């Protein structure tokens, strides 16, 4: 069984800590400042408004980030890593779909709510994520038949996966800005209130999390540059 590379261990630790901080901040925001999530026109939809940030941040972003890092920390076979990656991404996708549904449920429908940059980016992000997951699911269960195709599309699969993850972070940031601006404009939250500090800290935590996850995912696993150069030189001399 493969062990975690020593060079990646600090990044994985920081990624986990960042994920816990982000999850903790969104829980504090949702549970301590519940009144900020009560719709002014339909208070009965309070629970749906409250579930939206929890599902999109913890369920969609944090879990999908963990799925990206599975290949870096999970010991075992390649198939095991792919299976865990696929299941975690499936949970993240379900959270994203249900999170969007809770936002639009019981209000004026999807069309009426599809007006902001945040909503546009959110639907595009979840759609890309769903396409990525279906591609990975099909590839996992048809490994033999799609070997050549998988090799060709793997770089694009990695690129789109990281791009979608970055887009999810950007979407969450626009959502935080939109929500906080809405609350401050209506006079419910002041600019220097504790809730504003929590939301701003959540935005910084998401930015840190995305950077660490992407860096850990693209960092080399085992060989360093000098060792690769030495191997290349020896190969050239022997030939």
UniProtKB/TrEMBL annotation:
Membrane topology according to the record: Multi-pass membrane protein
Record protein name field: Cytochrome b561 domain-containing protein
Ranges where the Cytochrome b561 domain occurs: 14-218
Keyword hit for Nucleotide-binding: no
Source organism of the structure: Aquilegia coerulea
Pfam families attached to this UniProt entry: Cytochrom_B561
Database matches in PROSITE patterns: CYTOCHROME_B561
Domain of life where this protein originates: Eukaryota
GO CC terms: membrane
Transmembrane segments: 12-33, 53-74, 86-105, 117-141, 153-177, 197-218
UniProt xrefs under PANTHER family: CYTOCHROME B561-RELATED, TRANSMEMBRANE ASCORBATE FERRIREDUCTASE 4-RELATED
InterPro entries: CYB561/CYBRD1-like, Cyt_b561/ferric_Rdtase_TM
Cell compartments where the protein resides: Membrane
UniProt GO molecular function: metal ion binding; oxidoreductase activity
Cofactor names: heme b
Main location group: membrane
